[in-house]
User: What shape does this take?
Amino acid sequence: MPKIVDRDAMQTAILEAAVKTFAAKGYHSSTIADLAAAAGLGKGTLYLYFANKEAVAEAMIDRYFGRMAERLRAEARPPSLQAFLDGLRGAMEVPEDEAALIRVFFEVYGPGLASGDVARTLSGHFDGLGDHYASALTHLLTVGEVRPDLDTRSAGRALASLVDGMVLHGALFGASPRVGPGLRSEAIDIFLRGLRPEGP
Amino acid sequence: MPKIVDRDAMQTAILEAAVKTFAAKGYHSSTIADLAAAAGLGKGTLYLYFANKEAVAEAMIDRYFGRMAERLRAEARPPSLQAFLDGLRGAMEVPEDEAALIRVFFEVYGPGLASGDVARTLSGHFDGLGDHYASALTHLLTVGEVRPDLDTRSAGRALASLVDGMVLHGALFGASPRVGPGLRSEAIDIFLRGLRPEGP
Amino acid sequence: MPKIVDRDAMQTAILEAAVKTFAAKGYHSSTIADLAAAAGLGKGTLYLYFANKEAVAEAMIDRYFGRMAERLRAEARPPSLQAFLDGLRGAMEVPEDEAALIRVFFEVYGPGLASGDVARTLSGHFDGLGDHYASALTHLLTVGEVRPDLDTRSAGRALASLVDGMVLHGALFGASPRVGPGLRSEAIDIFLRGLRPEGP
Amino acid sequence: MPKIVDRDAMQTAILEAAVKTFAAKGYHSSTIADLAAAAGLGKGTLYLYFANKEAVAEAMIDRYFGRMAERLRAEARPPSLQAFLDGLRGAMEVPEDEAALIRVFFEVYGPGLASGDVARTLSGHFDGLGDHYASALTHLLTVGEVRPDLDTRSAGRALASLVDGMVLHGALFGASPRVGPGLRSEAIDIFLRGLRPEGP
DNA sequence: GATGAATGAGAATTCATTCAT
DNA sequence: TATGAATGAATTCTCATTCAT
Assistant: This one.
């Protein structure tokens, strides 16, 4: 009769300990011993739940993208340009724990980004984001909330890049107080004027 | 009389070899032996020019920021909004070797970005960039090229963040073909509409 | 449940292997790999028990002084001058393994002896030895076994130095056959005449 | 026409710089660069005068023994036991620079003392010292300054060991204030009583 | 003769991973 | 299942020695 453990709960617990550890010391400076200690487990036990150190990081990052995608899917179609932009503003606000995760991501995958290995996954993700924005814009176009000559597909992708850029910028340099709500509002204002129908 | 060497030239040569090596294998996976071999030197020789591996990365990154600042300083004051935006578009185009450097930057400093150590340097850099854009906008405002109600200071910083965000996005995910000239044009178009004076 | 090891026994085993290795090759010429091999362990395992090479040497030397002090403490108060001198003779006889340890000591700490770092510990040790001899002499004086005008305190310390000097001499040059029992007897004889009451 | 340099003077200068350096940092911690800098020479230049680092130490030590032997040879035959003992006392006083040299000696040769390599040289030296003392004692015996039953040969060697032991003790632990003139006087007093003719 | 730039052998140390208990 | 002791591959860094200038 094997001891019954909830494999998933265990993995989640480990991942939560890992985020904290990685956030505090970085991926490369965190040892397996650190992770195990943070999770209150023995070193060997970690290997019962993850194949190796990299697998822990991967699982962590997968989870993040999964949550992102879910959040996106759950988002209601915005009724107005203003609502849409509010959504963008929200997307640009990154809580510190996610910011930490993004930094870990670059520490782990940074070097690999050049060779399309991880890149493909990301492409998919950003395509999804761009399409999501594009479809929202198309909808707003039909209801006359954005200027009629807008190439919604291109604009969607451009916005995805801009928003993601702000997210990156915030996550990576957010410790500096330069990137605050004011900046985001100003950016949103620029977007507003760039998207809305012209005229009075 | 001993061999006479140009210390600066030697360091430059090493740094150039290092960029290539780091770009190819990443900072953490590159060994001192790799760097030395890439530079056509013995392991020990590297240590005559750099105190250690981290110092190589630091010098590399310092150089990058130095060049960036210099480029900025050299930039002529843009006569028109269009010229200004062309400048932005240019700033968003990152050649692959600089992109590689940016990736190295995050691999090296990423974990440390949370604790304001490196952050301060970056703050200064982005302040500079924001002020630079702000001053250009102020000038454009006086010549009536941007809408008179623009808060040039805030807008300057917002643009700095957006541009830098695009640079990061491009550098980190640029391997995927999603981030191309089209995207940048679309983004610039949004900026244009967000900044220009309203009306017919 | 992990393997259970007796940390102390392990350290002792390592130290014993280390003495042999250091004795054979010297401290500086012995590598961690040598020590590990001699102890029948993997290189990394050593580091589970000692922080580094120096710590091994330190532990070795601490042990030696500990044993010395213990031996001293256990020594019975000598009933006669002859018994006292027999004790000195015994103290001057250094078994080869202790001699090796003394040589290691000088290799490790020799350069540091000038700056009173290690010196303080040694001072304490020799004070103890001197006081020990002094108290024995005082006792012998009360029972009329040494000449009544003897400054037992000074004489105690002088004997400590002389004995220690012989120990050092023996340990360092003992490989040469010059320092044998004959020498020690002759020295003891000189001490005898120098300490005993005068007269017929 | 080769540049004319006084090879001997150069070597002496280097050795003098080396003593200082070794005394300050120890043999193993002193690098060739340190020695060269201390001598005001280029690293490569050292190798024109000494085959390698060890040769420097060897020459240093040889010099020391040479001077010792010379001093001994120059010593006048002592007219009285008191004069003889004064000589011993003098021999036990070690100036700090010689003490440093002795410490270097043990750092360099310590490990090798077990295997009779260096030991043979030392044996010779101590034989010489013992014989020197023995011959002095024999002379003193003929003039009735020491007790007639003294085995001068054995006593000579014993004294050599004792004196050398005190020298070692002083050189190695001299930094501690324990080993002072008082100690030496007391030791000499013990010797005096051990050697002089008995009686009133 | 003099020099110090170049070198690479060699050493200490770390740490992901395995596996006996 | 759970553990942490054991391991050795891999890495950084030092420094005696060589040799082109």
Observations:
- Residues 2-3, 5, 33, 36, 41-45, 48 of chain A lie near DNA strand F (CB under 10 Å from a C1').
- Chain A has a mean pLDDT of 87.
- Chains A and D do not touch (no CB pair under 8 Å).
- Residues 17 and 40 of chain A are 9 Å apart (CA to CA).
